[in-house]
Structure formats: structure tokens, C-alpha cells
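User: Mind C-alpha cell order:
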Amino acid sequence: MFNTTVLANQTKIEVLSLPVSSISAKPFVELQSDGRFIVYFNGFVEPENLKERYITVGGQLAGTEKGQNRTS
């Protein structure tokens, strides 16, 4: 549920934010998304290793970045 872009010294991951269970910490994929956010990891993250997976990210917000408008 995300897009990955490999940059020069980091990897950019656009993540779809979903509410999670307080018991299992698994996402409620059937519920409405809270939106998207972007995570930058120092170094290389192999995009193939992220396919078909859910990820959990913790950290501090460091700013805003305008993404693409998506309509369907």
C-alpha cells in the first residue's frame, strides 16, 4: 500500500495511512484511509522486499511535502 522511490542516498516511501488494531497492530484495510504520508529512510531499501507487505513507521514529522492529487 505504498510507492517506493530510490534516491541518491535515501529511499522515499509513500505510505497509505490506515487505522490499526490496538490488540494485533494489524491495519484495518476495510476502513477509510487517513491519507498518505512520506517516509525517507537513509540508505537503500529494496522495493521488492516491500511488495505485498504492511509496514509500521514511527518518528517525528519534519515538514510537509505536496504529493499528487489522486481522484478515482
Q: What stands out?
A: Residues 11 and 41 are 5 Å apart (CA to CA). The mean pLDDT is 84.
